[in-house]
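INTERNAL TRANSFER SHEET
From: sequence group
To: structure group
Subject: cinnamoyl-CoA reductase

Please process the attached sequence and return the structure record in the designated field. Keep the field labels unchanged so the import script can parse them.
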Amino acid sequence: MPFDCSSASGLTVCVTGAGGFIASWIVKLLLEKGYTVKGTLRNPDDPKNAHLKELEGAKERLTLWKTDLLDYESLKAAIDGCDGVIHTASPVTDDPELMVEPAVDGTKNVIIAAAETKVRRVVFTSSIGAVYMDPNRGPDVVVDESCWSDLEFCKNTKNWYCYGKAVAEQAAWEVAEEKGVDLVVVNPVLVLGPLLQPNVNASVVHVLKYLTGSAKTYANSVQAYVHVRDVALAHILVLETPSASGRYLCAEAVLHRGDVVQILAKLFPEYPIPTMCSDEKNPRAKPYKFSNQKLKDLGLEFTPVKQCLYETVKSLQEKGVLPIPTQQEEPVRIQS
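Return from structure group:
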């Protein structure tokens, strides 16, 4: 049993890669609940991490630790004294050398350090990339926590991000079993929503490109989406729930790119949002079926994808990444 969660007071959680999109939200929500948080960063003094120090409760209950995933001793020092670890730090790249080794060895180091310092539970941020890349799965098969990506298919298609995520998660399960660590895994899909960090992360670029005019067409493909706050809440839920075990698929909806641009055009007609598909020859790609029931059973209520898209764009406007239209119309009311 990881915690007595009747009170977060006096409990300490280490969040690796604390300055990232998802991790910043996890730190924010943990602090709001009263936890003490130790955040690991490659460089705590980098201005891109300054937002963490501004979070409510940060002055009293947040410390930032200079660590490297491949430097075991620095990781162990940060994890020592923690009740739980949420391991979100991971490279986001399609370069196999930059993706696979840090993802796998860094994850092993975190779990071994957690075992040595007697951490009660480790929550690992994996990805849908470790779940759904399987060319042999039929269109009617529901994607759930039992699914794994086909490693050979990932290699052959040079999808090193999905390959790295799958291999890292497999390594996490193996080392956790070997070391007797209580491990739970969250597998988010593409994450959207308000940015706490100053830089625009890879998943938000997915929406940004449709608003800046850099994408003239949209792809004939589908994508699953989820709100960043829901992902952060999912991590905390599985950390706190004694009965939580295994993997948790974190997704709200699967949409065709055509649906995404249609929603964006209705909400924000002032931007040059593409109306043409780059592939008019082939049939429209169909959304795959998935189950998020495990997280719903823990009480997570997912934010509708329209709201995710709306809040993402509003956040990009507030950060000055997107120009705010001169004539602001009546506020848009989101209907789920």
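Handover comment: Residues 96-116 form the longest helix (21 residues). The two ends are 37 Å apart (CA to CA).
Transfer complete.
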